[in-house]
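Progress report, Aim 2. The chain analyzed during this reporting quarter is listed below.
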Amino acid sequence: MTRVGDEDVSVSKGQAEEKKIREGKMESQSKELKYDDVRNQIQDGDVLLHRGKTLVTLLIRLFTWSQYSHAGIAVWWNDRLMAMESIWPMVIVNPLSQSVRRYKGGVDWFCCVKPVDDKRPEMIKFAQKELGHHFSLPKLISFLFKFLFRRRTTEEDRLKRYEKALICSEYVARIYKSVDIDLVKYKADRFTSPADIANSPLLEKRGILKI
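Predicted structure tokens for the chain:
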């Protein structure tokens, strides 16, 4: 009887410890991070998810049932930390500090949980090749239509006319897939949403970047 009681106490302690770890992790993920304090910790290929507050971004968040409206990646260019993103009208690169200032809703910083240090140069090389490719408005409309009417999102892209044009989260998914990391296995890249990227088991949220 004593032994059973001891086991019960051990299980209770284990559950309490797990709860504490979960709560600590949630607290760290929702923590606001001063950009200047963590800037040098951000690495090539880290994922950036944005919470926009404009009409268009609010519609994207509404249709995708998500707090996120946009996705991109971080990249170092010499001593400048930049954000690479597919945004109207094309894939561009901007200082990350400007993105953090521009998105009043916040920019969340995510890291890959898999070892990727040796793959980062290849990821950035692929991302740079996509610079200048057009942002795909038809894909975005198709994407939102699929979410709104809950159509299938697993088939590959058949819009051959627009295969080189990208939406933001598709761009991020392709960058990781270029080094054989599939962030969202159950969806085609063109139907991957910022929320899908955020919920990937291969990514861990580090916090919310603030200027």
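Confidence is low (pLDDT under 50) at residues 14-27, 153-162. The first helix runs from residue 2 to 29. These observations will guide the mutagenesis work planned for the next reporting period.
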